[in-house]
Amino acid sequence: MKSLQSLSRRTFTLGAGAAGLGMFVAPAEARTIWPDGARAAVSLTYDDGCESQLDHVAPALDKLGLKATFFLTIENMNARRADWVALSQQGHEIGDHTMSHPCMLKEFSAERFMQEQIIPAEHYLDVNFGGPKPRSYAYPCGFEGLGPGATVGRVQRYLEDLRPTFLAARTVDGPPNDPREALRQRYFLNGFEPTYDVDDVHFARRYVQKAIDKGHWAILVFHEVLPARRGEGDTSIAVHRSILQYLARENVWCAPMRTVFSYVTGTV
What we know:
TIM Barrel; disordered N terminus
């Protein structure tokens, strides 16, 4: 496990045909680009602003010297705002997961979604957490379409809301990310929920191994982390600890989502 200290950003060159896409292409194999010879990058992300993340996740990360991304839903975390602010001051990334985590997105126009979910959430995060900006975003419920109509139009509508505000956005599906594609796919970065259906360490290990095999970037997604799994989406403390210990043993670079994205794309 490679932790982030002071890194000199690797220089990327534009390949033929890539300039029109604004896409950075890594030289040779992707596996050669990670800091200190790491074979892959891994970002740990935690959604919804759950109290269990303060109580159980933060101490586990601290024990192993890991930094993560916490996507906060404002209505969930406001009661322990001071604790979340303290967490952010320890080097963890704070991302935007909207005001109230709506899943019925066909009911929203682009204007209504911005006014009710994005603008007030960003204002709250600005006042309480400050920078760095632009922030990372996580799609509530993993849904990538907004408003009524055909899928293509719904996705485009959502992107028009996100582009002016956010650095990048994370989904909850797909294989580990090829770092050479990260800039082009910045609003559709693949994430994986290894314990959403089953509380088992093996799915996380299998997914990270795929990233190691290709030198790619794995983004893991968690929600509640509790003494015992109570239902869909939960992770037990024991399984979560096993996943972190596995990452600590492997030759991977663990860093927040914004840090990895900025490293591979050269963006700030």
